Amino acid sequence: MTAISSRKEGVSPSDTTPKSVKVWDPIVRIFHWTIVTACTLNLFILEEGKYWHRLTGYVVGAAIAVRLIWGFIGTKHARFTDFWPTPRRVRDQIASIIDRNENRYLGHNPLASMMMLLLVALLAATALTGWMTTWDAFWGEKWLERLHGTIANSIMVLVFIHAGAAVLESWRHRENLIWAMVTGRKNA
């Protein structure tokens, strides 16, 4: 999690300043849009508990496994060490927002990091509880089905907050963060 200073990342003094820099690698972007698609399908389109709903849940589980591994061995901004939201980083970001002296981050900022990690944890819990409903030991257990649905609905609420924050941050920093997750590039 690197705040941007006056020195541009990846640019030597003899280079002309680029208009954009690579931030999000293909694995991060594919993970993000796989989750967006899967959540849209499972929350709004596919019938609960049926084949395609379950298959989509398994895709989410596999995507999470890949992303967790990539969080340790991936590119700079994909690694957890780059954006782990320590209490101090979160406090500093909140204070800088209040003071209107906020740093710009190439990767996830501390608050976005918290949201991302919370969403991944809830997605994993949803995939796990959905998978558990297929086990003989839990077949027809209403408490597990309710837990699965409650976690899924929590994800939906957080996704709306996440999307709203991306739009707000895009406006505040004059940078299209949604498009950056498509192209992998942000303003230099």
Structure write-up:
With 188 residues, this protein is mostly helical. It has one domain (20-187). It has helices spanning 26-45, 51-73, 80-83, 87-98, 110-132, 142-173, 177-183, and strands at 20-22, 185-187. A two-stranded antiparallel ribbon has the order 1-2. α1 packs antiparallel against α2 (51-73). The protein starts with 19 loop residues before the first strand and ends with a strand. The relative contact order is 0.16. The model is unreliable at 4-12 (pLDDT under 50).
Summary keywords:
188 residues; mainly alpha; two-stranded antiparallel ribbon; 7 helices; 2 strands
- Gross morphology: elongated
Mean pLDDT: 91
Secondary structural class: mainly alpha
Helix count from the secondary structure assignment:
7
Rg from alpha-carbon coordinates: 19 Å
Number of strands: 2
Keywords: Cell membrane, Membrane, Transmembrane, Transmembrane helix
GO biological process, one term: respiratory electron transport chain
Subcellular location: Cell membrane
Pfam families: Ni_hydr_CYTB (PF01292)
Write a concise synopsis of the structure shown:
The protein is mainly α and 188 residues long.
Question: What's the structural blueprint in terms of helices and strands?
Answer:
Blueprint lengths: L19 E3 L3 H20 L5 H23 L6 H4 L3 H12 L11 H23 L9 H32 L3 H7 L1 E3 L1
Antiparallel strand pairs: 1-2
Helix pairs in contact: 1-2, 2-5, 5-6
